[in-house]
């Protein structure tokens, strides 16, 4: 239930989040104002403050905190007080509540930022900032489902750096890491924003070309192969690239079939002499 609520709120536009928070504030204020005794409602006002801080940002949370404070002040002033010396208490309480709400809002926003950083680190490769293996496989499964619904092709390519060990052995691991970063940057520059690139580990990369059949993928990967050779030539001329790619046209292609076939094609290129691109269309086995 909690996950569904968070997913629902995350899909709401900023305008509807504002509407929701204001409705919450007004609802809590209406109950608070009708109660004629000094009953503290601060904890309930934290709900709209938390919602705005988490889903929109720190200043939206602060504005909501101010609104909640004003609503609570109005409810306090509505209570008739006979003794003169306590007439300033609602204003004092309002200041304390505003400070508390502000601190809560900023802490909640910082928690959201920390969560997003940890989530990003869990899905990204630390060296190249590309997708890691786990997140890439999740995306592959999702894109396969979308390709089935919308009836288009996609292509999965596995790429391995030839002779990468020589770079680490002769130039050091720092040079090898820098080379991987250059390759990652080139991949992102050469591919569309709708495509996906991942570092699977070591010197192996995966590329998912969305809405791309075998013929289109071969052109893209050959151009990419040429650009990669150019970008690494001055730094490491011994490096070349073996790429095996598989396209899927049938609706019953599975992620495992694509991954296994692309991996096999890549090793087929390496056994045949390396430094080439091979692309095939997967024909699923009859079940």
Rounded mean pLDDT is 85
**DSSP helix fraction:** 55-70%
The total tally of domains equals 2
User: How large, in whole angstroms, is the Cα Rg?
Assistant: 29 Å
Sum up the overall morphology in one term.
elongated
Named CATH topology of the largest domain: Alpha-Beta Plaits
Low-confidence stretches: none
Main sheet characteristics: 5 strands, mixed
| CATH architectural grouping of the largest domain | 2-Layer Sandwich
**What topology, given as strand order, has the largest sheet?**
2-3-1-4-5
CATH superfamily of the largest domain: Reverse transcriptase/Diguanylate cyclase domain
Regarding CATH, which class of the largest domain?
A: Alpha Beta
**Helix/strand class:** alpha+beta
User: What is the first-to-last residue Cα distance?
Assistant: 38 Å
